Amino acid sequence: MKESTFINWLGRIASIIAILMYVSYVAQIYNNLHGNYCAPLQPFVAGVNCTLWSIYAFFKEDRDWPVFWANFPGIFFSFATFLTCFPW
């Protein structure tokens, strides 16, 4: 397997795993909405991290799509989790 083929597949697999990691926040959002609140710091920091990586990947001269798509969903899921951590 050529290195570029390996790197392309590795980027795709890593992107899918990262997306699944952020989609897993749905269970915590559900718990938060039902009164079982989590600590807000981790999802907030994850949201900031995803935002920064998405901006980096999108605006660099040669866009890094695997990094962008791996982090973009995390912006929404992380901040949704953060916002539901509080009994408004």
Automatic annotation (TrEMBL):
Keywords: Membrane, Transmembrane, Transmembrane helix. InterPro entries: SWEET_rpt (IPR004316). The keyword Transmembrane helix applies. The chain crosses the membrane at residues 6-25, 37-59, 65-86. One of its GO terms (cellular component) is membrane. It holds the Pfam family MtN3_slv. This is Integral membrane protein. It comes from Limosilactobacillus fastidiosus.
